[in-house]
């Protein structure tokens, strides 16, 4: 027993085997796949169940209500109790969420509940899995945050593409995409079950566990606010427009697969640009580049709505997705610099929580755009365009304080 005392108390961690991070990346991919396959299902529920646009965009965003508290709680929890417990449960809950959604058959209340469970799973996975992959990346520790983001973002992008194809061209469109996800999760679960735990539980930290705070001191600093928090909701606030808000203005003969392709374009462009963004060196903070890219994406989106040209949606989706990828890399790099090792999971959780607030943007726009149209006595299309232009102006205006304060923080 004495020979194992250090390990048992958590004072030392087992050395991960090279390449183990891939298995955790697969788990995060599958959870991301399940979370975002819902994007083309918006069209399925609109057409087959007669669900309103506001309701389906609300379903898209409601999983943030499960996701944000899970991020804030399970980040610190995984720091104290270990990564494996949290990620195992997340993958299982991801399956449960898909099972509920498959059984819903267009019933709004059940769909909302299934999305909440899916959000809970994503929140748990993002807080624990990103920190776990970083700690498992013994071959290249600096690549850890990017690997985690690429894994879940690839799932976010490929999930809706597959779901769009399945729901458009195969039978049982309200069920089949969810079954595919549940099968993938069942395959990956045993693969990640015995990956090396890099954050073993330490019973001597019991008093500390009882007095922990969800929001550590680093998150309350001016540097964190301007380097991360001020712009974080833009990360998903822009990219979700590509597949939740813009497609109804485009029109398509195959609307379900069209939404899936739009989502895949946006999210996979975000994945593709991340390695480049990680190497990019500029005199200004990386977040400024992300906000500038979002500005372009919002203006191209406005052109798409005004012209009613469905093909312009894809360059708009590319820029909106690229902004998401650049800002995600920027935020994770800043969090890694700001966080001490004891609060890495907690800070990652807070950053992701702020980014996922952006999933409510399409829902808010579904009410705001018609209201703006009434105020200015114009069409709903023009009301939506005015909202996009306003967002573009906010992006430009945000650059000034972000650049000034973030640069000052880095100079200290």
Topology:
Elements: H1 5-9, H2 21-36, H3 38-48, H4 53-81, H5 83-104, H6 108-136, H7 144-169, H8 176-192, H9 206-210, H10 222-229, H11 234-245, H12 247-250, H13 255-279, H14 286-307, H15 313-338, H16 344-356, H17 361-375, H18 380-411
Helix pairs in contact: 2-5, 2-6, 2-7, 2-8, 3-4, 3-7, 3-13, 4-5, 4-6, 4-16, 4-17, 5-6, 5-8, 6-7, 6-16, 7-8, 7-13, 10-15, 10-18, 11-13, 11-15, 11-17, 13-15, 14-15, 14-18, 15-16, 17-18
Q: Helicity level, as a percent range?
A: over 70%
Q: Quote the average pLDDT.
A: 84
Tell me the series of helices and strands, N- to C-terminal: HHHHHHHHHHHHHHHHHH
Number of strands: 0
Overall description:
This protein is mostly helical. 77% of the residues lie in helices and 0% in strands. It has 18 helices and no strands. The chain has helices spanning 5-9, 21-36, 38-48, 53-81, 83-104, 108-136, 144-169, 176-192, 206-210, 222-229, 234-245, 247-250, 255-279, 286-307, 313-338, 344-356, 361-375, 380-411. The N and C termini lie far apart (48 Å).
